[in-house]
């Protein structure tokens, strides 16, 4: 019987294709390896999913695999199986899922294939070029006395040191290259070409630290994790520790234990560019044998990191959500820090949730997983209640003198503005800033709005300037003499001279954005050094520079968006002001309260992390909102309790599962009808008809128009995962019948509801 293989090719089709395995490749083609195949008239690089003997269906002539790209499968079996499950869970084509996980192809691999056809799947951006040859001793033994001179000397040095760059050997032994060649031909030494990592995260050396003595709660948590690692079975924990409670120290100990058992560890963080401190702490503990995976890496660096993991040269990977695909060797531990963070959900292409997928991957491989947060997601809290996650608590801050900051709620309906005259810088906030600056301490002011003024309003008719392509108001930015910008489609244009509706020439800038706040504070406190941190001033590297200045005490007041709320550990920050708490709480999203609460607790957690007590001011027009009341009391468990009760009542996650079908088109009616058709498919399928699945909609999305396209949606909801899958599949069958100009996105377990 002929040998056949299933190959996933990089086309947006959910299924794989069968090819015949030529005899010459029979013992080489294995699952996870890349192969070159004819597809239509093109040649494509695909990934082998499986190999089996079999007969093709009658009358079908299968094409043979043209050639093999990787002598060793590029994807380890564990990872490949995980990716297949991910693909099926998210209704995402396997080719697109593989694309997320594959490294680039190396230059010589591409050369070997010849420049034929279109090579895709795994960015065929070629890497390689500047590479360093490493010599590494093998386990083979030479015949006694058979080696002399430099060959013997080089071999004994390599055996002592493990491996060395050939160039370095040449500094020591004039004839090292010839000696290595000889050793390699005898099988005593292996040569490996590698690219040295050149990453900013590794630019400055990091001295090793001395691990602190664990406090009781940390020790208990570490003990439980070590116990689970020792059993070698999959186990899942929620590390619920207040801000500054020393969760990172728990991670470090857990990783040390994992490495000691010979396995590898994966650490996932929300936005790695904002957490250089975390990487520094890992380097201080484990040295530079870390793969740090982030979006700022060049293709070549990314590939080098990937290869160091795949070959087992490095066993710890740290990265943002895409690190969930890192080929960590012998995966024993997965850590998801700030597991509640929305950035773990990918919102384009394959819409996976990295936290959920971390749980899945760990479960499949028998790894231990630790989700850490000061404000756990309701999903995770519910998993604890159902016994799927074991809870570990760190109830106090780790620094003995540090306590949680005192929180004051400022009701800006009743309390007037300070000397600046803007309601959003109230008198209490102004006074608190004065006091902080006088004491030589630092403050963080958090405001959820970029730009100068969030809206431009006509004095005469009250019309608000909106984006022509999106149903949102335009923000005025100070840049280049004043420009209007849409924060959704990034349109930018000049400030109009007159109102578009009535022609009146009096347009007013309304509201407060971070640019305006920065100005106002700088004017009110001329001696203070004020800086701003938001997406407009800072991408990854610049954000780090601003935070470094903050750490060095070169900034007194840092004004910024969400970027200031992330896990920074800044010792001298004693005041945190939340300028407008209501902005986040009023979004049309069932998670608005949860997310607003998380934001408040996280930003409040930046204050008073050392010996000096911290203070937090929350300005709001809805002081009675539960998210604000519980945040002010630092009562995370009580908020979770309250919010779970609320969710249970309305039947939203974690008490049900959701599948969202997003439909958009240039024409409003076309989009509406398309959504209606998908809803009808979902309603008439067995799951929908039996009411095992609620079909909500079609309805206009809260953000009804974006980039010139009208948006509608159909929300499927069920307590039963299987039933939900059935209904989503039924609705998806309707997609093929839609107008070609309609776009449909299937979003399983959606996070963004706008
Ligand atoms: P979290 O990640 O929970 O917000 P961190 O891990 O950043 O907290 O810890 C807060 C601070 O406490 C850090 O400066 C850390 O070095 C310190 N720390 C952690 N554990 C201990 C300990 N056992 N003893 C003393 N200091 C500690
Ligand atoms: Zn727009």
Top CATH class of the largest domain: Alpha Beta
| Average pLDDT number | 88
CATH architecture of the largest domain: 3-Layer(aba) Sandwich
Q: Biggest sheet: strands, sense, closure?
A: 7 strands, parallel
Shape: globular
Task: Please state roughly what percent of the residues sit in beta strands, choosing from under 5%, 5-15%, 15-25%, 25-35%, 35-45% or over 45%.
Answer: 15-25%
Report a brief summary of the structure:
The protein is α/β, with parallel strands linked by helices. Helices cover 32% and strands 23% of the residues.
What do you see in this structure?
This protein has six domains: about 5-125, PriA, 3(prime) DNA-binding domain (GIY-YIG endonuclease, 3-Layer(aba) Sandwich), CATH 3.40.1440.60; about 130-195, Arc Repressor Mutant, subunit A (Orthogonal Bundle); about 215-395, Rossmann fold; about 405-455 and about 510-645, P-loop containing nucleotide triphosphate hydrolases (Rossmann fold, 3-Layer(aba) Sandwich); about 455-495, no CATH class; about 655-750, Ribosomal protein S10 (Alpha-Beta Plaits, 2-Layer Sandwich), CATH 3.30.70. Strands 13-14-12-15-16-11-17 form a seven-stranded parallel β-sheet, sandwiched between helices. A six-stranded parallel β-sheet has the order 18-28-27-19-26-25, sandwiched between helices. β25, α15 and β26 (about 555-560) form a beta-alpha-beta unit. Helix content is about 30%, strand content about 25%. Mean pLDDT is about 90; it is low at about 120-125. It has about 750 residues and is an alpha/beta fold. The protein is built from 22 helices and 32 strands. The two termini are about 55 Å apart. The relative contact order is 0.08. The chain binds adenosine-5'-diphosphate (ADP) and zinc ion. Adenosine-5'-diphosphate (ADP) binds next to α8.
């Amino acid at each position: 019987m002929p040998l056949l293989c299933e190959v996933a090719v990089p086309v947006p089709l959910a299924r794989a294709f069968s090819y015949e395995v030529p005899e010459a490749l029979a013992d080489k083609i294995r699952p996870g390896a890349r192969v070159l195949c004819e597809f239509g008239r093109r040649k494509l690089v695909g990934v082998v999913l499986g190999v089996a003997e079999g007969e093709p269906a009658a009358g079908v002539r299968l094409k043979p695999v043209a050639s093999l790209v990787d002598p060793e499968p590029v994807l380890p079996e564990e990872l490949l199986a995980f990716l297949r499950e991910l693909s099926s869970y998210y209704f995402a084509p396997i080719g697109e899922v593989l694309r997320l996980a594959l490294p680039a192809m190396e230059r010589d691999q591409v050369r070997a294939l010849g420049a034929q056809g279109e090579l895709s799947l795994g960015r065929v951006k070629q890497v390689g070029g500047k590479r360093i040859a490493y010599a590494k001793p093998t386990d083979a033994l030479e015949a006694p006395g058979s080696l002399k001179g430099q060959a013997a000397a080089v071999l004994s040095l390599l055996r002592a040191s493990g491996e060395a760059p050939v160039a370095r050997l040449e500094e020591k032994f004039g004839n090292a290259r010839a000696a290595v060649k000889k050793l390699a031909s005898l099988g005593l030494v292996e040569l490996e070409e590698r690219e040295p990592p050149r990453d900013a995260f590794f630019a400055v050396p990091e001295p090793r630290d001395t691990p602190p003595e664990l406090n009781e709660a940390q020790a208990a948590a570490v003990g439980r994790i070590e116990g689970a690692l020792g059993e070698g079975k999959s186990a899942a924990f929620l590390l619920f520790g207040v801000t500054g409670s020393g969760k990172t120290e728990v991670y470090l100990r857990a990783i040390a234990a994992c490495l000691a058992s010979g396995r590898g560890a994966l650490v996932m963080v929300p936005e790695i560019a904002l957490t250089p401190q975390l990487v520094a702490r890992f380097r201080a503990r484990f040295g530079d044998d870390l793969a740090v995976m982030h979006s700022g890496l060049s293709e070549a660096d990314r590939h080098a990191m990937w290869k160091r993991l795949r070959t087992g040269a490095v066993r710890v990977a740290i990265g943002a959500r895409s690190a969930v695909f890192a080929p960590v060797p012998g995966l024993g531990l997965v850590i998801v820090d700030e597991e509640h963070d929305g950035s773990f959900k990918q919102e384009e292409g394959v819409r996976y949730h990295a936290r959920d997928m971390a749980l899945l991957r760990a479960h499949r491989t028998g790894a231990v997983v630790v989700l850490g947060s000061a404000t756990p997601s309701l999903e995770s809290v519910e998993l604890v209640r159902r016994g799927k996650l074991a809870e570990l608590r760190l109830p106090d801050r780790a620094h003995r003198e540090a306590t949680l900051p005192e929180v004051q709620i400022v009701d800006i309906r009743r309390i007037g503005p300070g000397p600046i005259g803007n309601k959003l810088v109230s008198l209490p906030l102004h006074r608190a800033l004065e006091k902080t600056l006088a004491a030589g301490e630092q403050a963080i002011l958090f405001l959820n709005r970029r730009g100068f003024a969030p809206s431009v309003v006509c004095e005469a008719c009250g019309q608000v300037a909106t984006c022509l392509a999106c149903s949102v108001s335009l923000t005025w930015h100070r840049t280049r003499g004043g420009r209007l910008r849409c924060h959704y489609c990034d349109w930018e244009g000049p400030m109009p001279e007159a109102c578009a509706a009535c022609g009146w020439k009096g347009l007013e800038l309304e509201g407060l954005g971070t640019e305006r706040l920065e100005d106002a504070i700088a004017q009110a406190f001329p001696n203070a050094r004020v800086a701003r941190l938001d997406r407009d001033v800072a991408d990854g590297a610049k954000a780090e520079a601003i935070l470094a200045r903050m750490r060095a005490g070169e900034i007194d007041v840092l004004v910024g968006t969400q970027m200031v709320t992330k896990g920074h550990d800044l010792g001298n920050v004693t005041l945190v002001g939340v300028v407008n708490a209501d902005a986040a709480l009023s979004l049309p999203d069932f998670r608005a309260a949860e997310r607003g609460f998380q934001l408040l607790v996280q930003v409040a957690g930046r204050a008073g992390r050392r010996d000096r007590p911290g203070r937090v001011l929350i300005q709001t027009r809805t002081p009675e909102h539960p998210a604000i009341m519980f945040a002010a009391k630092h009562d995370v468990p009580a908020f979770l309790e309250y919010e779970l009760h609320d969710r249970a009542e309305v039947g939203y996650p974690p008490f049900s599962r959701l599948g969202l079908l997003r439909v958009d088109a240039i024409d409003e009616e076309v989009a509406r009808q398309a959504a209606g058709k998908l809803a009808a498919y979902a309603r008439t399928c067995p799951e929908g008809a039996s009411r095992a699945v609620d079909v909500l909609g079609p309805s206009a999305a809260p953000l009804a128009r974006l980039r010139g396209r009208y948006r509608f949606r159909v929300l499927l909801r069920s307590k039963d995962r299987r039933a939900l899958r059935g209904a989503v599949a039924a609705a998806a069958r309707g997609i093929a019948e839609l107008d070609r100009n309609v776009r449909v996105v299937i979003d399983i377990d959606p996070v963004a509801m706008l």
